[in-house]
Specification:
The complex is a heterodimer of chains A (about 375) and B (about 100). By secondary structure, chain A is mostly beta strands. Chain A has one domain (about 5-370): Methylamine Dehydrogenase, Chain H, CATH 2.130.10. In chain A, about 0% of the residues lie in helices and about 40% in strands. Chain A has one helix and 30 strands. In chain A, the strands form eight sheets. Chain A has a four-stranded antiparallel sheet, with no helix packed on it. Chain A is globular. Chain A starts with a strand and ends with a strand. Chain B is an alpha+beta fold and about 100 residues long. Chain B has a single domain (about 1-95), classed as Beta-grasp domain (Ubiquitin-like (UB roll)). In chain B, strands 2-1-5-3-4 form a five-stranded mixed sheet, with helices on one face. The interface of A and B includes residues 35, 76 and 79 of A.
Chain lengths: ~375, ~100
Amino acid sequence: MSGVRVLVGTRKGGFVMTSDAKRERWDIRGPHFGGWEIYHLKGSPADPNRLYASQSSGWFGQVIQRSNDGGQTWEQAGNKFVYDGVPGTHLWYDGTPHPWEFARVWHLEPSLTDPDTVYAGVEDAALFRSTDGGQTWQELPGLRGHESGRYWQPGAGGMCLHTIVQDPSNPERIFIAISAAGVFRTDDAGKTWRPMNRGLQSEGIPDPNAEVGHCVHRIAMHRSRPGVLFMQKHWDVMRSDDAGETWREVSGNLPTDFGFPIDVHAHEPDTIYVVPIKSDSEHYPPDGKLRVYRSRTGGHEWEALTKGLPQRDCYVNVLRDAMAVDSLDSCGVYFGTTGGQVYASADAGDSWAPIVRDLPSVVSVEVQTLP
Amino acid sequence: MIRVVLPAHLRTLAHVDGEVKLDVDGQATQRSVLDALEASYPMLRGTIRDHVTHQRRAFVRFFACEQDLSHEPPDAPLPDAVATGAEPFMVVGAMAGG
């Protein structure tokens, strides 16, 4: 019988949650790597038993873990992330040059076709790739070597490469996003990169229409339509219909267009989800009501999804990697909060129920649909 | 024989309980002890000192014989009591953060 496996990274460990296709009763295992920040866990689309985890600590640095049995057991992989060549400098918060320094892996994106190939988005922003199951890592230096690289500046959370989207129709094309540089695209498997930020407007930077410097929080794609991208920017929800060449705002009737995650329904490429957050200094939902907003029209027109979610006194945040969808017939939607709740909807967002309420602060949520 | 005490999270990574015992070639220094530690437990590479520069991570300290040796040169001899195994070389995670 088919089912789902939800992979949850928190500030103090990782959790693996499984259910059958009804998605009503859950088996929760963890914490794995207790006490460590688990920035991200993700499974290989080519082998769902192969999982990767980014394990991080302010004391002991970066560790990468790998599982070959769906998260029941783990083995340590390689943690040597060394920038290619002489790293050079980017700009610091105060506008002065600052040496590139590796801090942590924010996001692990396994290849669509090879379980041993996985990409890592890191802070300070760079893209690494492993082709041996995470044992060794090589930077794809063309990204950081882009002529704008020396002018990139960190967002409040650090200068992180947090989003990696592979084009399923073209193995040479990858999109990445960096806070606060913006979106870049490669069409030659990572050798060269172009900024893809035309149409973005950000009032917090000197030139609101600059080619580079936007605080993009997350981008999402439906695999059947890889030329269409959706973006949650610091402020503004955006859409591109030409593979990132140009963007237009689709925030429409959202109560606020600040937020972090954005995702696309598994079977309806124009149905998208965001979690509006009051502002960039408040980082909680408006009016103390936790509401996911869904658009069935690819933006502009949004409806609040509230059934089963707290509608008073709720002041949690939902971080950029903390939303995911499964691909069962009735699409499941999942998200985790900084208050430690993981919510699931088995009916595309119409109704919600907590899988668990009292985890450490949730950093990331991914889901695997199992045969 | 050198005795090394690791913090709990690194004992978990290294799959060890209690002290680690190491044979160190030549003089016992921070560098030679950490080289021997990482050779026996390669999963600890990068968690105590940087992979390339071998600089101690900021929130890791080295204590022995009731002294903080963290700022001693990496090639300075460790106290005789550490070199003989009478006292352990302690890798400590600083008490900071949450």
